Amino acid sequence: MGESQNQPFQLSFNRFLRVDFQGSRVTSDGGLILVRELDERLGLSRLIGEHLVDSRTGRNWQFPLADLLRQSVYSRLAGYEDLNDAARLSADPTFRLMGSEKVWERGVALTSTLHWFETDLLAREENLTGLATLNRELAAQAEGVGSPHRVVLDMDSSESPVYGEQEQSAYNGYFGSVCYHPLFLFNSQGDCLVAKLRPGYVHSADGWEEVLLPEIERQRQNGKEVVFRADAAFAKPEIYEALEERGVKYAIRLPANENLERDIEELLTRPVGRPSQRPVVRYKGFLDQAASWSTARRVVAKVEFHAGELFPRVGFIVTNLELPSRAVVRFYNKRGTAEHWIKEGKLAVSWTRLSCHRFRGNEVRLCLSVIAYNLGNLWRRLALPRRIGNWSLTSLQQRLVKTGGRLVKHARYYWLLLAEGHLTRQRFGSMLRRIAALPQPDG
Fold this sequence. Notes:
- The protein has 15 helices and 16 strands.
- Among the domains are: 22-126 and 362-436, no CATH class; 248-334, no CATH class.
- It has helices at residues 32-41, 44-51, 65-77, 86-89, 93-98, 111-121, 125-140, 208-221, 237-245, 258-263, 325-333, 336-348, 359-382, 393-401, 425-436, and strands spanning 9-11, 14-19, 26-27, 150-157, 160-161, 170-172, 177-180, 183-187, 192-196, 225-230, 249-254, 280-288, 297-305, 313-319, 405-409, 414-418.
């Protein structure tokens, strides 16, 4: 049976149980408080002020730009990729308390405000450029924490399927879908340094110069040794030459052809005798000069014989690394982590959900999702205890971010009382101490 309006509900199966609805006091995303503490330590507020322009005039506006950006980013990190979720999140205690004091009581922005923010204010040229710079500078705040002297850069493209009439979407024969074809650049810690949205019909390596070369120059200015990895889509002479001119080591997959297979003909003969149940692997390094190359380059071949397979698996890598052939292959194979990080971005922050009609609006959505991904990745590698440091972003989202809590307001303080599940008091305290121990950013 029920009670009168605004009174708790009483249930007949348990007369001592009362049910009430107090959504403005209850949250399901209490774990985001830790990420908010991390972004404060990394200086996100300063980066927003330096790189984004608030073109609003007058004083009749309710939400500071930093609050709007955090709401857009944190909603994605919590798994709310659709702007329609803003109406429900507007009264959520976690989202209110992560913003400025102006929204603690009033609540965060509704769908219409957030839509204007993402498709109008951030879509302006200076702010789109500013978002990309902000993302790169955010990752840079963590580069001084255990950063190695050698920086490994992984480049890869991906598919972002579309289901409407989005500008510059097109059918891509390789993916077999109507899509966008974004390009990503990662470092070895999983930070997405650059993300570029491209029309669906372009080649996988299209626009590599504006993504890769500025990052190489940045790392060289910081005194870093740069190594580059990419798959066969980036096996282009102009890429080799650009890397060699800048003293960058590289390992790039080469498509197989008859000339290359002729150079390893002796490796293609199946071993005599009873077939081994374990793969038989052979390596060979040699110099080769393709017709489009201006000079001969080192090629490393790997041939694998597997039980039950008629033909061997053959792969080629062009490289200027001064390592044994087996070590070159082992180093190149780690490039697969870039594909894993792209998959994490798709699953955890839905960065393939590009549903705006305008291409510029979808560029903004991709940038916001990449910032959300990087905040999650920085949380994982800078703040998580070692025992759970290998959790995927989806696991962090489901086990730590999705922590229930209740907001209690006293005269001077707000108390957020969290349920203890995967996010225990001990883990919460451990992460706060790790965040507090991070070096203060410059500026």
